[in-house]
Amino acid sequence: MKIDIYPLGLIQTNCYVLSNENGDALIIDPGDEGARLRKEIDKKRLKPVAILLTHAHFDHIGAVDYIRDHYSIPVYMHKEEADWLSNPNLNGSGKYADLPNVSNRAADHFIEEGTVSIGPFTFDVKHTPGHSPGSLSFVFDNDRLAIVGDTLFKESIGRTDLIGGDTQTLLNSIHSKLLSLDDDYAIYPGHGPFTFIEDEKDHNPFLNGF
């Protein structure tokens, strides 16, 4: 499977486009710049089958309806944040006077922890709350990678001072759901560079002694 990374918007949120050899694609966290993202997808002649959301903060959902409508594909997320897509006060865009309010229609499907199949893709969904109550991580065992949103970063962790955030819950999620993966799994976060489980065990100062 191929993974393309597009940092989008003012906060440079990583949008991931995962595609197979047939050109079928999953779009994860289309946070902004929908027209630019569409051009990149079309240039590669990919065929999106779904949008997955790691969580519903505004910088991860800004282009959801644009991409959903252009490709006529469904949106999947955790039910804990069902109201966040349409509510700027919950998704955080309402906090900033210099940013437009972000509002989308409701998700098409809610997903829980477990093995999920969407089109030709099968992967494990892990509920990893702490940064937000409905945060999800998507684990692709055959490719030894996990897309984790704002739960875990290279030598850092997600912030917990937003609505529904909690530091101990976040650390529990990282320890039980992510650090339990094999050391060679690549971790693709919502911002910044990718990393590996082994490197975070050895070098992440927020996890030392946990």
Question: Helices and strands in order, then pairings?
Answer:
Elements: E1 2-8, E2 13-19, E3 24-28, H1 34-43, E4 47-52, H2 58-61, H3 64-71, E5 75-77, H4 88-91, E6 109-110, E7 114-118, E8 121-127, E9 136-140, E10 145-149, E11 152-153, E12 156-157, H5 167-178, E13 186-189, E14 195-196, H6 197-203
Parallel strand pairs: 3-4, 4-5, 5-6, 10-13
Antiparallel strand pairs: 1-2, 2-3, 7-8, 8-9, 9-10, 11-12, 13-14
Helix pairs in contact: 1-3
In short:
This is MBL fold metallo-hydrolase. The chain is 21% helix and 30% strand.
Structural account:
The chain is an alpha/beta fold. The protein has one domain (2-203): Metallo-beta-lactamase, Chain A, CATH 3.60.15.10. 21% of the residues lie in helices and 30% in strands. It has six helices and 14 strands. It has helices at 34-43, 58-61, 64-71, 88-91, 167-178, 197-203, and strands at residues 2-8, 13-19, 24-28, 47-52, 75-77, 109-110, 114-118, 121-127, 136-140, 145-149, 152-153, 156-157, 186-189, 195-196. The strands form three sheets. It has a six-stranded mixed β-sheet with strand order 1-2-3-4-5-6, covered by helices on one side. Strands 7-8-9-10-13-14 form a six-stranded mixed β-sheet. A hairpin with a 4-residue loop joins strand 9 and strand 10 (145-149). Helix 1 runs parallel beside helix 3. The longest helix is centred in the last third of the chain and has 12 residues, at 167-178. The chain is globular, with a radius of gyration of 16 Å. The N and C termini lie far apart (33 Å). The mean pLDDT is 96. It holds the Pfam family Lactamase_B. It comes from Sporosarcina contaminans.
